[in-house]
Specification:
Blueprint lengths: L13 H27 L2 H29 L7 E4 H31 L6 H23 L17 H30 L4 H28 L6 H12 L5 E11 L2 E10 L5 H5 L8 E10 L1
Parallel strand pairs: 3-4
Antiparallel strand pairs: 2-3
């Protein structure tokens, strides 16, 4: 009998439903802005609508990843299930965020030297509307359903895909907040330099978020060894029995909330693999465990 390795990936995730709602919300607002921009000849509305389109595409990628992982969860070609599709989508979203940060910073620096005329009232309205939509999206994506793991449970992020979606809407919300501050300052006090300055600040913050997401998702994709605390927890639990000495240990993430582990122990007496398996802590999310026993 072949052991299945879907680790619950076939079950719909709360993050998928929430991402679906946010994709629909941002897509509708994107269409409204683009149509209004074309109808009223507003470049501010049109530009913000096209900007919203880039984030709608990134959020759509997150939704596609959820659906793909769920539908292919039982595919035997995936050795440890489809959990890493989650991190792959998060990594791709982090790349998009990094590009977005570069564009923000580059355009802002350009406007320091070549300022453009700003239609303050119209731009402020657009920024406020964008903030309302993105604020609602943040609230939706932050909601947790009963039974879901917390983001840091088991010592690692539960859902990189959902985290990436959150960062995209947070980046949009941050852009709107900074834009409102800069536009009001420029309109009321003539501080036109605030507009590009806030763009640089926003780009720097988004770049920082992007780097952290790239680091965390990259670690999962490259099967990076888990933290020393997790390794020590496993080793101490196994060696506490007194009959075994851990000689080799590997623990790594294979999906949102799931780990795999290889434990090699040395013992001088007879023992069954199941005896070692029972000693491995059950609260670490280790869904796939391989035990090797060395005698002598």
């Amino acid at each position: 009998m072949v052991h299945e390795h879907h680790f619950g990936q076939a079950e719909p995730k709360g993050g998928e439903a929430r991402t679906r709602i946010v994709v629909a919300l941002t897509a509708v607002f994107m269409v409204v802005e683009v149509v209004a921009g074309l109808a009223f000849g507003s470049m501010a509305l049109l530009a913000d609508g096209l900007h919203m389109a880039s984030h709608t595409s990134a959020l759509g990628l997150a939704l596609i990843a959820y659906i793909y992982a769920r539908r292919h969860a039982h595919d035997q070609r995936f050795c440890f299930g489809t959990g890493k599709v989650n991190s792959l989508a998060g990594f791709a979203s982090a790349v998009v965020l990094a590009l977005f940060a570069l564009i923000m910073a580059g355009e802002s620096v350009h406007r320091f030297f070549r300022p453009v005329a700003i239609s303050f009232d119209e731009a402020i309205v657009v920024a406020v509307l964008g903030l309302v939509v993105n604020g609602a999206s943040v609230v939706i994506l932050r909601a947790r359903h009963d039974g879901e793991h917390s983001e840091h449970e088991h010592g690692h992020h539960h859902d990189h895909n959902l985290r990436a979606a959150r960062l995209h809407v947070l980046a949009d919300a941050l852009s709107s907040i900074l834009a409102i501050i800069a536009l009001v300052a420029a309109k009321q006090f003539g501080a036109v330099w605030m507009d590009p300055a806030m763009g640089v600040v926003g780009g720097a913050l988004v770049a920082r978020w992007s780097w952290r997401l790239l680091r965390d998702t990259g670690s999962v994709l490259l099967d990076r060894q888990d933290s020393g605390a997790v390794l020590q927890t496993v080793a101490r639990a196994v060696e506490a029995d007194g009959r075994f000495r851990v000689v080799d240990l590997h623990v790594w993430s294979i999906g949102p909330g799931y780990r795999a582990a290889i434990v090699s122990v040395a013992t001088s007496g007879p023992c069954q693999v199941s005896e070692v398996e029972r000693l491995v802590p059950g609260g670490l999310g280790i869904a796939h465990l391989t035990v090797e026993v060395r005698h002598g």
